[in-house]
Amino acid sequence: MGKGGEQGGDSGEPAAQIRFYTWEEIQKHNLRTDKWLVIERKVYNVTKWANRHPGGQRVISHCAGEDATDAFQAFHINPTLVQKFLKPLLIGELAPGEPSQDRDKNSQLVEDFRTLRKTAEDMNLFQASPLFFSLYLGHIIAMEVLAWFMVSYFGTGWIATLILACILTTSQAQAGWLQHDFGHLSVFKKSSWNHIVHKFVIGHLKGASANWWNHRHFQHHAKPNIFRKDPDVNMLHIFVLGDTQPVEYGKRKLKYLPYNHQHEYFFLRFSPFLIPCSHTLLIPLKSWLDPPKVPHPTLIPYTCRASIQVSAAPCKPHSNYLMFLESHWFVWVTQMNHIPMEIDSEKHRDWLSSQMAATCNIEQSFFNDWFTGHLNFQIEHHLFPTMPRHNFWKVKPLVKSLCAKYGVQYEEKPLGKAFVDIVGSLKKSGDLWLDAYLHK
């Protein structure tokens, strides 16, 4: 039970009662109807606030019963402003004898990582370059204009249509990386401006909902590759991932699909169909079923624009396979950093260790940076999600040095090998499932 104490104020009012809690007690409050978390040794009851959390109630719930200091700093570009929302939720502090970190985490590693973050802030690595993002948006708009020019002047013959499809696929892929920047609040200093432009880019250029993306993607960043917490690895029984889930499914004789062939149908079905299915089924369905959180009007600009674009091309072949081409691009790039890494249940690691276990980097080059939207720096992006992507290469040496100091693996590989590793990882998991299914 929490211990009582006194906390005086500066206003001359009577000292307020403050309670102290142990980690043992805090960790009990990690239920759906009872959620506490710790930020900088202060204990907050977020049970009722969770449903009003702008990032979604799930992402904050995933940190219940834990020290959420690093996650809090990672997701908010102005923690001081957010503190005003936390103040009414404050219920006490960690007891003086309690460590700042829960579950025997390496306190020195945690402190060194926070020092690294402070160093990055002092180096102005969280300051975005207006020129970089202006040019980036400009090259996307230029491709869209070029596509309209081709339709107007060259018609819709097969050669023109094939070139048009390549241009529009590229612009859509790059728009996807750009909305990712705004979604992570890494462009403007004010969150409101990031949210406004994010809604425009993802709604008008991508035909998706900013709220839907935020609620899903922030969970992935908070708990990457953690079953039941990271929606990106909750594959609805399409795949078995990692080393433990395949064996578990095999022992339980679960066979929703022939998982020993998942490395084959990943390329033939999942990769090309993810974006088309999301746009035609999942996103519209979510929009209509949950309009307060995912307002379908955000899809209207994209729908109107796409309808005009399709009507401008009577033979319309590009409209049929444009999303399939983009889907391949998106899936291979986003999965190359995570599927080959550790995928397992919650292990309550510190922020650095949990992100490093679930992510890897791809070698830097001008093409790799552009092709992946700087997601080849996935490690740095996961450690500092609000950092503008053009600064990842600057903080990279500091991250590698810290990892070397504590023996944390920092994995980096060529782009081609990263793609091959996706297939190899899926095959390994499928074989584990088959062996457990047949023999255990």
TrEMBL record:
Work out whether the entry's keyword set contains Disulfide bond.
no
Location in or out of the cell: Membrane
Q: Name one Pfam family in it.
A: Cyt-b5
- Kindly state one GO CC term assigned in the UniProt record: membrane
What SUPFAM superfamilies does the database record attribute to this sequence? Cytochrome b5-like heme/steroid binding domain
Q: In which pathway does it act?
A: Lipid metabolism; polyunsaturated fatty acid biosynthesis
Gene Ontology terms, MF aspect: oxidoreductase activity, acting on paired donors, with oxidation of a pair of donors resulting in the reduction of molecular oxygen to two molecules of water
Q: List the keywords (alphabetical).
A: Fatty acid biosynthesis, Fatty acid metabolism, Lipid biosynthesis, Lipid metabolism, Membrane, Oxidoreductase, Transmembrane, Transmembrane helix
Assigned protein family: Belongs to the fatty acid desaturase type 1 family.
Which residue ranges run through the membrane?
Answer: 124-142, 148-168
GO biological process, alphabetically ordered: unsaturated fatty acid biosynthetic process
Q: Does the keyword Transmembrane helix apply?
A: yes
Chief subcellular location equals membrane
**Which named protein is this?**
FADS2 desaturase
Q: How does it sit in the membrane?
A: Multi-pass membrane protein
Span of domain Cytochrome b5 heme-binding: 18-95
